[in-house]
Design goal:
Length: 213
Amino acid sequence: MDSSITRDLYRDITDFAHTTPTWFQKLAEIWTELGLLLFGALFLVAWWRARVGPPPAIAVAVLAPLATATGYVVSESFKSVVDEDRPCRTVADAAASLVPCPPVGDWSFPSNHSSIAGAAAIALAIAWPRIALLTVPMAVLMAFSRVFVGVHYPHDVMVGLVLGALVAVVFILALRRPAQSLLTTMRTSRTGVFVWFAGPGGAAAPVRNRHRR
């Protein structure tokens, strides 16, 4: 990847970062990591609420974190092929990064944080459509924060977001039916932990007695 593609934009963003208040810089440093924990919490909430839903709902909710993990693996695999050095080392005339520059060998393209965020945002949106208005902006802000703190080029995070999102969609589409079948079986199991994990499903609708007046 030719890092000169977004070198100037990286420089502009890191210069801007140094003009912001210290508290805002600290907030960006925290968000770049805290966002991952918030996605993890949302996975748990999505799974818990899907336990009382139909099999397709619980299947997607269970697949969502697995799709995100797969997005990370794919991103990390690309890193080992591209071997792009971090901009905090290669862009000499840019402002210093707000966080320590990762060591040599921890490559820049694509951004793992952005890939995870993109995968998590889309996987959660599929599992819980209403939450897309929260998860997509979260992912974009997390990706931007990686440039803001100075450890990634803009193209690293843009490709990371798209890559993670695509991996999540393909993963869920490919495995939704097998997961739905497995979880349906788990709901009928006599093993308590399986039933607890898969959930009771939706309550059966009451049967009306047509002969009752």
